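Changelog entry

Holo records now carry the ligand SMILES as an explicit input line rather than a separate metadata file. Below, a converted record for zinc ion, shown in the new format.
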Amino acid sequence: MDTEEEIRNLQKQINELTARRDLLKNPPPSVEVCTVAEELHRTLCRKNHTDGCSWFDRNKPEDWNRDYTKQEYVAKAEELLSSAEVMGVYTQDLLNAFIRIYKAQHKLVYQGGKSNVTNL
Ligand SMILES: [Zn+2]
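Structure line, unchanged by the conversion:
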């Protein structure tokens, strides 16, 4: 192995160790937080997910701490989870209620129609 190749290999190891250290220092959100964040994104995001918010571009665990859009929805998910705990209700029940209210509001504002929550 020549010197240049040895340097490239050592640099690669440094990069891998740095990434591992960064993940240990700042671990990604829990699976529960990511699941709620994904559902909130599915409901609330009005952008093109490919060009607008780039939701699907970065999906490695470490990306949850780097990606601005994912961080935005992680913050919302953490708020919802915290609220469910304070209220003593199931997270999924609170999430479902939020989504139903949001969709009813969206229908009223953007479609000028009468909300019909039962048909959401
Ligand atoms: Zn999106």
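Spot-checked after migration. The chain is about 65% helix and 0% strand. Residues 38 and 73 are 7 Å apart (CA to CA).
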